[in-house]
Design a protein that fits this description.
By secondary structure, the chain is α/β, with parallel strands linked by helices. It contains 15 helices and 21 strands. The protein has a 6-stranded parallel sheet with strand order 2-1-3-4-5-6, with helices on both faces. It has a 5-stranded mixed β-barrel with strand order 17-18-19-21-20. The protein has a 3-stranded parallel sheet with strand order 7-10-13. The structure holds S-adenosyl-L-homocysteine, iron/sulfur cluster and FE3-S4 cluster (F3S). Iron/sulfur cluster (SF4) binds next to helix 8.
């Protein structure tokens, strides 16, 4: 038998790209490819890219440049660009970097095998359509390989919100929800393969409204269905928009036992003036009231968020409002970014904030966020948590997993196995993780 061909995939950006990379690897598995961890022995290299900030997009070109030597040594090596940079820049990528053989946008991954075949004939292949057919359906012919205890499952794609800074509505297209029965089928399949925790994914996951048996189903409806899947112990979802936090979803956080007490709910800014200019269609106050309601339903819920500092025309006063909001919410995790101009988005044309000012605001915000994060993590010491163990730790006999609140927890106990869900008592809080002992 001939050696299988090797595929190296490097994934950038959000969890949806992680999910997509798995689907692409499976699709190419059908063409005789196995995955490799190194580009050096690959027959095909795929970069699954992100376009969200300028730095993310530019990384792709520097990475591609590094493959020049490899391609010179191995003329048969095929190099492909997938993901949001592929969608946004298309043909331009091949112009800028002639060693690229293939460019495929996120909605066309099911066409990857035929595209690869085309490159084997010495042609270039480009597909950045938004085709009518359902790529998830076409991609579902997968090997039943065993999996780790956690998995992502995309339930919704695209976005109709058009925040003034964001490329997602252009790179991922309009908001689309997958039918509930397909998602449930995929979830059951994942569980059969060893998965115990599923994170439902969507750029706007809580806007989910997929076809169910009695008309459209909400995200909460879908979560309740998943709650009945035997062997599935934990459900999470990300990313949510404040305007789509429906009553049934808030309620589910209080009543659905497998839904974890963690919610990523980006607000972007604490200033109403800036929120309006961002086209976010919520205010700081409506966001804070929403969190109050969520905490009424589930008092211990750990909040997570995203922030942009230095958005065009952001003043010191606007920034102060963001700091105030952060102090009120106290996030367990929060991600903050300096505004990055994205060509083609409405905010790109507006007066920019001095980059040094934006830098110092970012540092100030991150210091506050880190302080809260620290305090919340430290407050877990002495508490009983339930941990899903995911992999061996750095020291021998150690296992690492995640708590309900998504904190990394490590336990030294040689009897522990990957995939076990166990009660632990937290004994100390380290730099990025908690140490605990089994109960
Ligand atoms: N769908 C999600 C997240 C989309 S992208 C949501 O609606 O919140 C993830 C994060 O990247 C965003 O929440 C935002 O904080 C950040 N982001 C998006 N565009 C950006 C830009 N142009 N500059 C800096 N940060 C950006
Ligand atoms: Fe981007 Fe806004 Fe849509 Fe989130 S809601 S993906 S930030 S446009
Ligand atoms: Fe990036 Fe595309 Fe995700 S731009 S954040 S990879 S949707």
């Amino acid at each position: 038998m001939s050696e299988p061909k090797k595929l190296y995939i490097k994934t950038y950006g959000c969890q949806m790209n992680v999910y997509d990379s798995e689907r692409m690897a499976e699709a190419m598995g059908g063409q005789g490819y196995v995955e490799t961890k190194s580009p050096d022995d690959a027959d095909m290299i795929l970069l699954n890219t992100c376009h969200i900030r300028e730095k993310a997009a530019e990384k792709v070109y520097s990475e591609l440049g590094r493959f020049k030597g490899l391609k010179a040594e191995k003329p048969d090596l095929k190099i492909g660009v997938a993901g949001c940079v592929a969608q946004a820049e298309g043909q331009e990528i091949m112009r800028r970097q002639p060693l690229v053989d293939l460019v495929v946008g996120p909605q066309s991954y099911h066409r990857l095998p035929e595209m690869e075949a085309k490159t084997r004939e010495g042609k270039k292949a480009l597909d950045t359509d938004f085709p009518e057919e359902d790529k998830f359906e076409k991609l579902k012919n997968r090997p039943k390989a065993k999996r780790g205890p956690t998995a992502f499952l995309t339930v919704q794609e695209g976005c109709d919100k058009f925040c003034a800074f964001c490329v997602v509505p252009y790179t991922r297209g309009a908001e689309v929800s997958r039918p509930a029965d397909r998602i449930l089928h995929e979830a059951r399949d994942l569980v059969e393969r060893g998965v115990r925790e599923i994170t439902l994914l969507g750029q706007n996951v809580n806007a989910y409204h997929g076809a169910g048996p009695n008309g459209d189903m909400t995200l909460a409806g879908l979560i309740w269905e998943l709650n009945k899947v035997d062997g599935l112990e934990r459900i999470r979802f990300t990313t949510s928009h404040p305007n789509d936090m429906t009553d049934d979803l808030i309620e589910a956080h209080g009543t659905c036992d497998r839904l974890m007490p963690y919610l990523h709910l980006p607000v972007q800014s604490g200033s109403d003036r800036i929120l309006k200019r961002m086209n976010r269609s919520h205010t700081a106050d409506s966001y804070l009231r929403l969190i109050e309601r969520i905490r009424e339903a589930r008092p211990d819920i750990l909040m997570s968020g995203d922030f942009i500092v230095g958005f065009p025309e952001e003043t010191d006063e606007d920034f102060k409002a963001t700091l105030d909001l952060v102090e009120q919410v106290r996030y367990g995790y929060a991600y903050s970014f300096k505004y990055s101009t994205r060509p083609g988005t409405p905010a790109a044309e507006r007066p920019q904030v001095d980059p040094e000012k934006a830098d110092s605001r970012l540092q100030e915000l991150q210091a506050v966020i880190t302080r809260h994060q620290r305090e919340i993590q430290d407050s877990m010491v002495g508490r009983k948590l339930r941990v899903l163990f995911e992999k061996p730790g750095r020291q021998s006999g150690q296992m690492v997993g995640k708590s309900e609140y998504l904190h990394a927890v490590h336990v030294s106990d040689a009897s522990l196995k990957v995939g076990e869900l166990r009660d632990v008592r937290v004994v100390s809080s380290g730099a990025n993780s908690l140490a605990a002992e089994l109960l």
